[in-house]
Design brief:
By secondary structure, the chain is α/β, with parallel strands linked by helices. The protein folds into two domains: 3-39; 46-165, HAD superfamily/HAD-like (Rossmann fold), CATH 3.40.50.1000. The protein has helices at 3-13, 21-39, 46-55, 70-78, 101-110, 124-132, 162-165; strands spanning 61-64, 86-89, 118-121, 136-139, 156-157. The strands form two sheets. Strands 3-4-5 form a three-stranded parallel beta sheet, with helices on one face. Strands 1-2 form a two-stranded parallel ribbon. The protein starts with a helix and ends in a 9-residue tail after the last helix.
Amino acid sequence: MTSRVVMRFWYRHFPWSGKTLEQVELAVIDRVEALMIETGTAMDGVVEVLQWCQKQQFKIGLSSNSPARLIPVVLNKLGIADYFHAVSSAEHEAQGKPHPAVYLSTAKKLKVAPEHCIAFEDSYSGLLAAKKANMQTVVVPASAEFMDEKFAISGLKLRSLSALVRHENLYFKT
């Protein structure tokens, strides 16, 4: 969910007073930004996959449900900003993931047809968004969810991103 949707959800279930939804949302984003800067680390294999994609001369985009303000914080913290040719936040879409809009926006920025894109996801809602955008998918679910059948819709399921660069010939289900 986007941060706005999350705030509305919590307010509906546990209404508060004294601060507006926007004020609470900004405070949460401020705290998340601080935590990312202090303790953020990359998912295993991120840099290797980005290097591999760059070597293949793929255009690389990022489609995130995160607020636009947090995306450069993460990319810069991890030292991976220069790999990306396009970045999109669902904050600028009518709906966040699992709606495909943020993926379609990134494909448009990259000037690549969605059916010629491969989306890497770690969440089910992101996987649904990529599938709805008619993209090929690679999913790397959290280890506790790895065996969950809901991830079977992905073209490829991996335990870590680093496993991708160890494959010479990959086949994606269509």
